[in-house]
Amino acid sequence: MNVLVTGSSRGLGRSIILEYASNGNDVIINYNNSKDEALELKDYVESTYHVKALVIKCDISKEEEIDSMIDEIYNEFGHLDILVNNASIDLDQDFELKTKEDFMKTLEVNLVGTYLLSKKIGLKMLERKTGNIINISSNNGLDTPYPESIDYDASKAGVISLTHNLANYFAPYIRVNTICPGWINTDMSKKISNEFKEEELKKILLGRFAEKEEIANLAYFLGTDKASYINDSIIRIDGGVRR
Ligand SMILES: NC(=O)c1ccc[n+]([C@@H]2O[C@H](COP(=O)([O-])OP(=O)(O)OC[C@H]3O[C@@H](n4cnc5c(N)ncnc54)[C@H](OP(=O)(O)O)[C@@H]3O)[C@@H](O)[C@H]2O)c1
Fold first, then answer.
1. Over 90: is that where the pLDDT of 167 sits?
2. For the chain, give me the number of helices (H) and strands (E)?
3. I need a surface site. Which of 41, 152, 203, 207 has the fewest CB within 10 A?
4. Whether residue 135 has pLDDT greater than 90
5. Ligand 1 pocket: which residues have CB below 6 Å?
6. Which domain holds residue 106?
7. Residue 93: which pLDDT band, with cuts at 50, 70 and 90?
8. Is residue 148 part of a domain?
9. What is the chain's mean pLDDT, rounded?
10. DSSP code of 72?
């Protein structure tokens, strides 16, 4: 199968690529800034797992870059089986300092980018009457409010809403599901202070942040036939929340 994972130069996206590639799938690695990491990942999966890997630079907040990425993928691979909408930014800062520009930038990447990719690739999948879309949201999109990430939380709640409309539109041919992780050990979570991390750890029943691979396993499972009846689902994976 051919699998595109957006934002797969680093972090969770990289682990999702490794999961699919190690199971024999051809992969498209998308980056925006981290070119060297993306090229290193391509070399690694091609030499280790003997699959085909394509690296594409695309800022998913720019529609023309999305269009040229899709053209390149379809020219090179003919079709896509799985789209994993993983790329995301968080511009955490003081509630009072956050600007409209910050808010719009976060929505453009996390929500509008996910919408455009899902719509454009979903319609192509529909022509073949088969496909699979997996979105990475966050438990912030469900019920974990943080005023300093009000834009990020709104974008992630928006991705949950997209899931239902996309699953509806593409039924019965394309399954659309969304994963809502809690904290994961990646660059995104490295930015927080030790004090805040301690507070957050106290709320998690398993007492630790997730490893990237623990979330990537679920992103892989949803793309397989073992998940053939899972559709339009919002799946929380956060180690359990202390109540
Ligand atoms: N880490 C957590 O605690 C956590 C918790 C819940 C949910 N999540 C979600 O899990 C997913 C992965 O997060 P992560 O922690 O792996 O993030 P990360 O370490 O910050 O990595 C973000 C990735 O997204 C890419 N990206 C950012 N803006 C992009 C754009 N405009 N176009 C294309 N790619 C772009 C980056 O690529 P470049 O470096 O090439 O620019 C990078 O590969 C995200 O959807 C995030 O919201 C994370």
1. yes
2. 9, 7
3. 207
4. yes
5. 6-7, 9-13, 30-34, 59-61, 86-89, 109, 136, 138, 181, 183-184, 186-189
6. 2-237
7. confident
8. yes
9. 97
10. H
